[in-house]
């Protein structure tokens, strides 16, 4: 059996084990904590009080509660809206359009656009939340510079359109990833193919739709995979900007999980929420991984 192994691999097994050991250790830690979360999801464990020590097994009660109480389903719907418009529509489309528009460009315009979108990506979430809160408040920059000069009464965007503000803020903050990925993908498209399409008399839209997009389809799926997972489980910017309010308007699943586990102290129910999120993200990952496969 050993003779069938690649000679280099056979002679460097200790090195391979040493390289694989950190990854195996990291994976073991992930499995360990995931196992505890799944275990706690079948209990009535709480973070304080008697149930923090003397907890009981409750079976599927926490999972039944997910679909019989309004909190989880409402937060799931808010999360779906937030993820769809911020990640699928916002970051992907804006990042792609910017990459297409600036492809091959040089000079001040491209530098200004790249610095602007990179600034949002590099800013800490707390700082970004403060900037958007200050800009979208009733006395903020948007009202003072745009709304009031047009003769309209000030609008309290943070109260009346909180989810819209959060979606725009996260799109602004995360579009840099999509832009960088699509820029690299477009640069890898052979110029000869584009020139051949031009010779055939195709329009720029036709070249984009029928030539470029099919060639970078795996990159589009990869981008969608990452930003959908990140956005679906996103917490810092939303919590710092709105805290899940007003009411439950921006109460995405990550915030609902935090509130349930540490504000209401129901860690068992919170574990069930985390397992449900894990299953949803897993299903989305499988969907996108299927898109990565080349069509037969």
From TrEMBL:
<protein>
    <submittedName>
        <fullName>Multiple sugar transport system permease protein</fullName>
    </submittedName>
</protein>
<dbReference type="InterPro" id="IPR000515">
    <property type="entry name" value="MetI-like"/>
</dbReference>
<feature type="domain" description="ABC transmembrane type-1">
    <location>
        <begin position="77"/>
        <end position="290"/>
    </location>
</feature>
<keyword id="KW-0813">Transport</keyword>
<feature type="transmembrane region" description="Helical">
    <location>
        <begin position="152"/>
        <end position="172"/>
    </location>
</feature>
<keyword id="KW-0812">Transmembrane</keyword>
<feature type="transmembrane region" description="Helical">
    <location>
        <begin position="267"/>
        <end position="289"/>
    </location>
</feature>
<dbReference type="GO" id="GO:0005886">
    <property type="term" value="C:plasma membrane"/>
</dbReference>
<feature type="transmembrane region" description="Helical">
    <location>
        <begin position="220"/>
        <end position="241"/>
    </location>
</feature>
<keyword id="KW-0762">Sugar transport</keyword>
<comment type="similarity">
    <text>Belongs to the binding-protein-dependent transport system permease family.</text>
</comment>
<dbReference type="GO" id="GO:0055085">
    <property type="term" value="P:transmembrane transport"/>
</dbReference>
<feature type="transmembrane region" description="Helical">
    <location>
        <begin position="76"/>
        <end position="101"/>
    </location>
</feature>
<feature type="transmembrane region" description="Helical">
    <location>
        <begin position="12"/>
        <end position="38"/>
    </location>
</feature>
<dbReference type="Pfam" id="PF00528">
    <property type="entry name" value="BPD_transp_1"/>
</dbReference>
<keyword id="KW-1133">Transmembrane helix</keyword>
<feature type="transmembrane region" description="Helical">
    <location>
        <begin position="113"/>
        <end position="132"/>
    </location>
</feature>
<keyword id="KW-0472">Membrane</keyword>
<keyword id="KW-1003">Cell membrane</keyword>
<dbReference type="InterPro" id="IPR035906">
    <property type="entry name" value="MetI-like_sf"/>
</dbReference>
